[in-house]
Amino acid sequence: MKSKVDIKEVVERIKKISKKKINIMEFCGTHTHEIFRYGIRQLLPENIHLLSGPGCPVCVTSEDDIDYIIDLAQNYDLGIITFGDLINVPGNNGSLNYLRAKGKEVIVVYSPLESINIAKQNPNKKYLLIGIGFETTVPNLAFTLIKAKEENIKNLYFLSLHKLTPPAMKAILDMGEIKIDGIIGPGHVSTIIGRKGWEELFNTYKIPFVIMGFKPEEILYGIYHLLKIIEEERPALINAYEKSVKEEGNKTALEYMYKVFKKGSANWRGLGTIEDSGLILNESFEEFDIRKIYPQKPNSLKSKNNYCRCGEVLRGVIKPTDCPLFGKSCTPESPKGPCMVSSEGTCSAYYIYGGE
């Protein structure tokens, strides 16, 4: 299905089988942006509603965790090493970009392996590498920590803000705030955990679930199959992205992941603390764990972002346009919350491509 004719054919198939009012949620920020970029919402019948879930790792980073990082940078002689979008996420005491403007050492890297060279080149300085992302990014961080241990790097510490996707899906389904008839399974995450990584969720909820790619024809093809099993009341867990997603996932990546990490609780913006939804360093790598050196205390600060409704956007309860800040005081140039900051954020997609 590569030509425009094929896309039109799939759209016609969708229109023929689609009869019910259906809510479908995508749990991947890349899917959110590609759906907007290619105008897929406009191609679907009016009875089909696409909802955006918590599919952006920067967006689901809690305000407490941002405040903790800022506290570390302000009060201890630590250089902060992070990835692009996180630098602009506001906490109660500013953002990492704000700290950098005040003279604090905040370094943005494209590969976590760069942190090893930074630490080696500055042996008298301590550095904190912030690990963020879903299952897709974890293997590279795990490999970095394995290398740091092998090279006996003593001035590099690590903060794991990694999160696991299936527990977040479970939390949203358990909340029952919105009716979800089917799920667009995240392609990138599924390349790591495989189709099998979703079996427990599917077996528990029996909700139609289709793993999809990111090209417009792949998304529409996946939505067609999802609508088909919804309309036929025949729930299934389908892998429609077979060229990249295997049944067992990427075994090598999973081995790296669980050599370094183990499951633990994690604090999600909009969802709260979810048990076994995060990855923390296991005993063999605790020497890198910044929380063991400077324990994270409960945040006593009241949020200054009371009017930002990013948490509700992440749960699919409201659209970005329902937030009073959207497009007014909150824009990509002056974001008030991470859903506008991140290149994968739902608010960012609505702002860039337009959405009602």
- SSE-based structural type: alpha/beta
**Sheet having the most strands:** 5 strands, parallel
Estimated helix fraction: 25-40%
Strand content: 15-25%
Q: Compute the gyration radius: what is it?
A: 21 Å
Low-confidence stretches at least 5 residues in length (pLDDT < 50)?
A: 1-5
Would you tell me the overall average pLDDT? 93
End-to-end separation: 29 Å
State the order of secondary-structure elements, H for helix, E for strand: HEHHEHEHEHEHEHEHHEHEHEEHHHH
Would you mind describing this structure in some detail?
With 356 residues, the chain is α/β, with parallel strands linked by helices. The chain has 16 helices and eleven strands. It has a five-stranded parallel sheet. The protein has a four-stranded parallel sheet with strand order 4-3-5-6, sandwiched between helices. Helix 1 (4-17) runs parallel beside helix 11 (216-231) and helix 7 packs across helix 12 (251-260). The radius of gyration is 21 Å and the shape is globular.
In short:
With 356 residues, the protein is α/β, with parallel strands linked by helices. The chain has helices at residues 4-17, 29-37, 40-43, 63-75, 96-101, 114-121, 138-150, 165-175, 187-193, 199-205, 216-231, 251-260, 290-293, 310-314, 338-341, 346-353, and strands at 22-26, 48-52, 78-82, 106-108, 126-133, 156-162, 182-185, 209-211, 237-239, 261-268, 272-281.
